[in-house]
Write a structure and sequence with these properties.
By secondary structure, the chain is an alpha+beta fold. The chain has a single domain, classed as Orthogonal Bundle (Arc Repressor Mutant, subunit A). The protein is built from 3 helices and 4 strands. The protein has a 4-stranded antiparallel beta sheet. The two termini are 19 Å apart.
Length: 89
C-alpha cells in the first residue's frame, strides 16, 4: 500500500470515528481533507474509492448508495456513502 493510500485509509477511519456509529461520510470529505484545490481533490476521488473498496473487503466499512451496499464493480460512478463496517476499529 502506498503512503498516499495509507493516508487516505487513516482519514477515512478518522472521519468515520468522529461521527455517530450510524452516520456516514462522503468520499469527497476525505479527498477535500487532503487538498483544498478542487482539481486536486477531484483527482483523488478514484483513489479514495479504491481504498474504500479495500476497507470494505476487510469488513472495516460499508460502501452504500441509499440503503444498498455497493459492490466494487459499481464504484466508478454515482453518489456513494462510507459507513462503519463490522470490523471497524
Amino acid at each position: 500500500m502506498s503512503a498516499q493510500d495509507q493516508r487516505i485509509e487513516r482519514l477515512i477511519l478518522d472521519l468515520l470515528g468522529k461521527r455517530d456509529a450510524s452516520s456516514s461520510i462522503c468520499p469527497s470529505e476525505v479527498a477535500r481533507a487532503m487538498s483544498d484545490d478542487e482539481a486536486t481533490w477531484r483527482g483523488l476521488m478514484p483513489k479514495v474509492r479504491a481504498v474504500a473498496a479495500t476497507l470494505q473487503a476487510a469488513d472495516r466499512l460499508r460502501i452504500t448508495r441509499g440503503d444498498e451496499t455497493v459492490t466494487p464493480a459499481t464504484l466508478d460512478h454515482g453518489a456513494i456513502r462510507l459507513r462503519r463496517g463490522k470490523q471497524f476499529p
